[in-house]
């Protein structure tokens, strides 16, 4: 069947042709070695252009169990070129392509005999150890800290029970049992569309919400999940706009949802809207470990897949990463369009979101042409600061001679081109945005000035623990991969807010024993708590009054 966009298999073939793919056929432990190995090309001083996708074909877990299904890590956005392959266009055309797609959506096309239904697993086979979710080679993202293998590249589909409009978002999903996982959807104001659907189901007294988790969309569809589209917009229609043709879709087998027909794997089931279950710790994209929270348990009713399925996994956590690159390539053109076209600030040349460690969400640099009026510079700063509520805690205006990706150059410009009395301002009344929970400081934050020293205990840095990165370095060298220029920090370590219970859970997960963590968390499930309520590890109960 011909189509004007690539499925994941075609995407991998193009990466191979362009020398953008490293195929690893030596034995690799998915629980303790896989993500640390790929992480080295982000932490090892390599240029962005040198990064590649990794395809693992000889996989085992911490217990030595082998898997036939390959895993692709970094395959969508290890660098800009890989992202552009998925977009089916040169990188310079990405901004225009997104603008056209959002303005000109195309409805999807339903087809029969979908590739994602070549193999269908339902019933008792889903409940057995080694079956269901437990048969999938899902990596531990941050070994040493994460309590379970976690779906990091899944596109989670839900439906509004009132309007029947679907939403597709990228949320973390922790494996708990062969037929159970726990989903974390952002509950903050302006958060996940899926969580809003969850709330509507609760309000209507519907005890279970149908969900379909897609692993391995065609890249042009997968990019919809991280992209922040307006609520109520069906992502399949915007993906059709990107492809300039309808996306092929089909109906799921056990839930009333529409899914991408060319997906690699579909996980179907229902989220319980009456209770929550401990989930985490997990290395988050804001660069710290997200500590244990109560989130949404999902029972699995079917797993369908292609015969030759490939499991994708995002390399995320501390930026730079694959997940931050996906967002950066999409977000920067949106900022520029907002300032130049919607705010009519003509002197803005480009907008850059700082990536290393800050993860795009804290520092925004606006490049202005020479002799740009002072008032226009300040208009650009104010409008950039409030364009996206979770970005731009610090905004900096510079001229075109400053390399915005060089922190030394930014400090040089601030030191010699600004007068703090006149040229630095603070702005109150902004949300905290995506980051470690800081309940002690309230819900409000500010922009521009910040003392960046640690004032209180924080979760660990979201990198694999030292021993796993050291082992991955040995494998890296055995493979004859490029020499690394290691810079600190290159491994995760405690910053105070950590508990021996999570240490033990992380050790079990890295050893392939995540099911034991799932059995423990199942005994701690409670009713009546809002998702994302913190777990008190000393009492294994919710901290504070967080009932819904």
What would your notes on this structure say?
The protein is built from 14 helices and 30 strands. With 548 residues, it is an alpha+beta fold. It has 2 domains: 8-318, Electron Transport, Fmn-binding Protein, Chain A (Pnp Oxidase, Chain A, Roll); 325-447, UbiD C-terminal domain-like, CATH 3.40.1670. Strands 8, 9, 10, 11, 12, 13, 14, 17, 18, 21, 28, 29 and 30 form a 13-stranded antiparallel sheet that branches. A 4-stranded mixed sheet has the order 1-3-6-22. The protein has a 3-stranded mixed sheet with strand order 2-4-5, with no helix packed on it. Helix 2 (34-43) crosses helix 12 (466-478). The longest helix has 21 residues, at 322-342. It is globular, with a radius of gyration of 23 Å. It starts with 7 loop residues before the first helix and ends in a 6-residue tail after the last strand. The model is unreliable at 449-456 and 544-548 (pLDDT under 50).
């Amino acid at each position: 069947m011909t189509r004007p966009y690539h499925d994941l298999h075609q995407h991998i073939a193009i990466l191979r042709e362009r020398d953008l793919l490293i195929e690893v056929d030596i034995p690799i432990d998915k629980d303790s070695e896989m993500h640390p190995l790929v992480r080295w090309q982000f932490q090892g001083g390599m240029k962005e252009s040198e990064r590649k996708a990794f395809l693992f074909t000889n996989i085992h877990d911490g217990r030595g169990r082998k898997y036939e299904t390959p895993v692709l890590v970094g395959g969508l956005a290890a660098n800009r070129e890989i992202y552009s392959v998925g977009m089916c266009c040169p990188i310079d055309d990405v901004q225009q392509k997104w603008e056209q797609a959002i303005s000109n959506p195309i409805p999807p096309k339903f087809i029969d005999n979908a590739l994602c239904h070549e193999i269908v697993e339902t019933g008792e086979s889903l409940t057995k150890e080694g079956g269901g979710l437990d048969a999938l080679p899902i990596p531990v993202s941050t070994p040493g800290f994460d309590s379970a293998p976690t779906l990091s590249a899944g596109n989670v589909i839900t439906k509004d029970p009132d309007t029947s409009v679907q939403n597709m978002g990228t949320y973390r999903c922790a494996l708990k049992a062969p037929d159970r996982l726990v989903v974390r959807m952002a509950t903050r104001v302006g958060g996940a569309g899926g969580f809003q659907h969850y709330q509507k189901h609760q309000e209507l007294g519907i005890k279970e919400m149908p969900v379909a988790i897609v692993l391995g969309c065609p890249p042009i569809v997968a990019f919809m999940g991280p992209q922040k589209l307006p609520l109520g917009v069906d992502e399949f229609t915007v993906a059709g706009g990107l492809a300039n043709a309808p996306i092929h879709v089909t109906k799921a087998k056990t839930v009333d949802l529409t899914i991408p027909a060319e997906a690699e794997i579909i996980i179907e089931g229902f989220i319980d809207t009456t209770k929550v279950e401990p989930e985490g710790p997990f290395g988050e994209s804001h660069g710290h470990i997200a500590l244990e929270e109560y989130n949404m348990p999902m029972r699995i009713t079917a797993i369908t897949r292609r015969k030759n399925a490939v499991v994708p996994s995002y390399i995320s956590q501390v930026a730079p990463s694959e997940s931050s690159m996906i967002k950066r390539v999409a977000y920067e053109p949106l900022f520029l369009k907002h300032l130049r076209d919607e705010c009519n600030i003509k002197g803005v040349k480009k907008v850059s979101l700082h990536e290393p460690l800050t993860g795009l969400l804290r520092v925004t640099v606006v490049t202005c042409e020479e002799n740009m009026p002072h008032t226009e510079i300040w208009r650009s700063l104010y409008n950039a600061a409030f364009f996206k509520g979770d970005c731009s805690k610090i905004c900096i205006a510079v001229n075109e001679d400053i390399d915005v990706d060089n922190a030394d150059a930014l400090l040089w410009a601030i030191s010699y081109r600004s007068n703090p009395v006149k040229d630095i301002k603070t702005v109150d009344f902004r949300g905290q945005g995506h980051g470690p929970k800081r309940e002690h400081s309230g819900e409000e934050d500010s922009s521009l000035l910040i003392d960046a020293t640690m004032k209180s205990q924080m979760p660990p840095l979201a990198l694999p623990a030292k021993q796993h990165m050291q082992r991955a370095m040995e494998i890296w060298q055995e493979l004859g991969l490029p020499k690394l220029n290691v810079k600190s920090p290159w491994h995760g370590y405690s910053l105070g807010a950590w508990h021996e219970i999570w240490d033990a859970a992380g050790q079990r997960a890295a050893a392939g024993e995540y099911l034991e963590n799932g059995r423990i968390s199942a005994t701690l499930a409670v009713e009546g708590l809002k998702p994302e309520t913190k777990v008190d590890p000393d009492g294994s109960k919710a901290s504070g009054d967080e009932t819904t």
